[in-house]
Structures are given as C-alpha cells and as structure tokens.
Design goal:
Blueprint (H helix, E strand, L loop, with lengths): L11 E6 L4 H9 L5 H18 L4 E4 L13 E2 L2 E3 L7 E3 L2 E2 L5 H18 L7 E6 L3 H13 L3 E7 L12 H17 L5 E4 L2 H7 L6 E3 L15
Parallel strand pairs: 1-2, 1-7, 2-5, 7-8, 8-9, 9-10
Antiparallel strand pairs: 3-6, 4-5
Helix pairs in contact: 3-4, 4-5
Length: about 230
C-alpha cells in the first residue's frame, strides 16, 4: 500500500459502509435481518483505527436489507447517532423496493457524502475508508476523493461480488453482473486496498504495493478469558 500520510497531519476521517446504530441493528435482527459479522467487523476496525491514529471517524452508511415485502419496511428511516464523543454517524434513508433499493441507497449515500464534504474544508487532508465492494459506498467514496484535494481513499474488500449472494435468482444475477462492470471501472481509482486473502489481489488484478492482507480482527474486550 502507498506509504501513508503521517496521522498527525490528517484532519478528517470518514467510514463509508453499512454500519448501524447498535439499538437499530438489534431491532433489525429481531425482524430477521442484519449481518452480525459485518456489523462487528466495522465496529472493531473503526475502533482500532481510531485508537492507533488518534482520529475520530465520522460514518455514513446504508442498511443492507432485503427489499419490501421480504423485509417488512418499504421505507428505511434515517438514523443519526454518535459512536463516540466528537463523531457524527448517519445511516441514510432510502426507498426499499425490489430491484431499486440499492440504487436508491446509493443516491442517498451520495447526498450524505456531499453534506459531509460541506462540513469541512477542501484543503483539509482526509482519509476515507470504504467497507466492501458495493457500488453505492464505492461511488460515494470516489465522489469525495474528486472533491477533496488531499483525500486518500482505501477500499476494504471482505468478499468478491460474485460470491456475496450465490443463491440469487436469474434476474438478480444479471443485475449483479452489470453492477460488477461499474465496480470494476471504479476499482483502479482507489489509493489502497485491504484484503482478507491474497487470492483476492489475483482475482482483482491489483498491483503489488497497493494492497495489504488482513485475515480478520477482534475486540480484546469482547474475548472471554479463561480463569487461571
């Protein structure tokens, strides 16, 4: 990965993904939706980055749920919270309809990205982390990179798009193939990549020196220690 800017020089930090406010995430779980591994991974990674950099991350996210009526809500409400003092977190609102929910969520992420840009100065050095290879978060990150003069954009690749929903129907598979064309065109514009496997670099044809492998992470305070 490209040699990183000294953390003391960075002014702003943003997480773009699918992070949920904890009580809202529990509510979605009770409705039968919510990816526990993705929620915990994002919480742990962002906390670790904050502890090692001294920065406080803001976050903009879009919920990952099935379209209505499989998920019982046709409109996903906006959720605003603070994961820690000084942070600004938002899960964007969008129309949750079949075939269009990811597109509507992507538009809402772009609006949130523009709002976040307007809250600071263009010349402030910023680091932007995009969680997972999804077109909406990636597009929001690239928009910010184009409009912030000193932004560094990092993509965290947890899964390859072709393996995210292996049981998808024929139409959804076709739409995902079309979406992957767009994702592939955006991929080279990122400054660095965090991968969960070195085979991902081969599959995505990423150049050496721009990616690192991270096989997982955990929060130490959540590990149960055996007595003695």
């Amino acid at each position: 990965m490209e040699k990183r800017r000294k953390m003391g020089e960075l002014k702003r930090a943003l997480w773009i993904g699918s992070l949920e406010e904890p009580s809202e995430f529990q509510r979605k779980l009770r409705l039968g939706y919510g990816i526990v591994s993705a929620q915990l991974m994002q919480e742990n990674l962002m906390k670790g980055l904050e502890e090692t950099s001294g920065l406080v991350f803001d976050s903009i996210s879009a919920s990952i749920v099935s379209p209505f009526p499989a998920y019982p809500e046709a409109w996903i409400e906006e959720t605003i919270w603070q994961h820690r003092a000084g942070a600004s977190d938002v899960s964007v609102p969008f129309l949750n309809l079949t075939w269009g929910n990811r597109l509507f969520a992507g538009w809402s992420l772009l609006r949130a990205a523009k709002k976040w840009r307007d809250q600071g100065r263009e010349e402030d050095p910023a680091v932007l982390y995009v969680y997972s290879m999804r077109s909406g978060p990636m597009a929001a990150g690239l928009w910010l990179k184009r409009h912030l003069r000193q932004a560094k954009l990092i993509l965290i690749v947890t899964d390859l798009p072709g393996f995210m929903d292996p049981e998808a129907g024929r139409i959804k598979k076709l739409l995902k193939k079309m979406d992957f064309v767009w994702i592939s065109r955006m991929l080279p514009a990122f400054d660095g990549y965090v991968l969960f496997s070195s085979r991902m670099a081969e599959a995505l044809n990423l150049p050496d020196g721009k990616w690192i492998r991270m096989e997982g992470c955990y929060a130490e305070n959540r590990v149960q220690r055996k007595a003695g």
